[in-house]
Amino acid sequence: MNYKSCHLIEHGISINVDSVQACCLSRDFDKGLLKIINKYENNTINWDEVFAIKRQQRKFQKNEDLPACEGCYNLRVDNWDDDDYISYINFDHWSQCNSNCIYCGVQANKPKTKNNVLNAIKTLIKLGKFKNNGEITFQGGEPTILKEFDDLLKLFMQQGSKIRIHSSGILFSRAIRDGLKHGLVTVVISPDSVSREVYKTVKRVDKSTKVWDNIKHYRKNLKDDLAPLVKVKYIIIPGVNDSFDEVTDFLAKLKSLDIKSVIVDVEYTYANTNANNISPHVYILMDYIQHFCNQNSMSYDLYDSALYIDRNRTFPKTENFDVQILKEDISKYSAQNISLNVKY
Ligand code: SF4
Ligand code: SF4
Questions:
Q1: What is the pLDDT of residues 35-67, one digit of tens each?
Q2: To test the ligand 1 pocket, which listed residue (3, 7, 8) has its Cβ within 8 A of the most ligand atoms?
Q3: How many angstroms is it from 190 CA to the middle of ligand 2?
Q4: Who's near 322: CB < 8 A, 6+ residues apart?
Q5: What percent of the chain has pLDDT over 90?
Q6: Is the predicted pLDDT of residue 118 greater than 50, yes or no?
Q7: Which residue's CA is the nearest one to ligand 2's atom 1?
Q8: Is 307 in the pocket of ligand 1 (CB under 6 A)?
Q9: DSSP codes joined into one string, 319-333
Q10: What pTM does this model have?
Q11: Between helices 174-181 and 149-158, what is the axis angle to 10°?
């Protein structure tokens, strides 16, 4: 049936530390209806309950947007099926991490329960209610220090699923390396700087060298056609890593490592607080990175906050990439713009 919905309302779940919801992307969870299970116990997710609620969500969405989904960039009109199955799972059920990023919303906001989910996922698969035509994502916390991570990864690789892993990159994971080699895993690492000092300011750990080494090794182990599976992210943090020189060094490093895929995001609290007043220099930096990617056969993608601000942008696309002009424009506009809520 044709109607406006999104793949996560239809066939997705996001497993949080103690709850299960349709997604982790809504900016308005207070408006409700995306929650599926308020509290699950260790290794037990009641799948009958999950599908009953998802049917209600789909029914609601057929008539009008779920309140928490209004305006979401993922909504689209499509011919959605009505079957009960899950094909998108976001693992978000732990908060431990080996980094300590100034913009992190995970460590401060998540309760530190220790629910495991491996057996619950095995049950879903046994019931025949998992389809491998979507994507599995790991957010966290840091997946490589999650005890059941290797087992979960193996399980989904056996299913032939596509898996996206967000990692701090501080630990090298053989499981990730093997998944990359099989073409099933995508790893996303966000060093946000090449400079050791800026990295330390952003991450509050001194692991820059280690992270860049690990990025290099993930890439080095891959044939060229799989290179885009190693994605390196730059979160633009106004006042911290938003100069022309910082971004230029970052792009040069990617080129030297033969990285083929770049993701850009903008620090969440800045983007949220300034939703209608984003500094032009943020857009110029995004355009500059995109231009560099086009020139160097790299893919360029935007994540959540960057997608929102790009969609609402009124500042014109940059057309002149002359270094001197870029430098002047970026420093002119950036002087007054900082991320207000990050904790140094
Ligand atoms: S908030 Fe967006 S991504 Fe999440 S379920 Fe709603 S439409 Fe989908
Ligand atoms: S790597 Fe992710 S989970 Fe870890 S501190 Fe940084 S933002 Fe938080």
A1: 899 899 888 999 999 999 999 999 989 988 888
A2: 8
A3: 9
A4: none
A5: 76
A6: yes
A7: 168
A8: no
A9: ----HHHHHHHHHHH
A10: 0.94
A11: 10
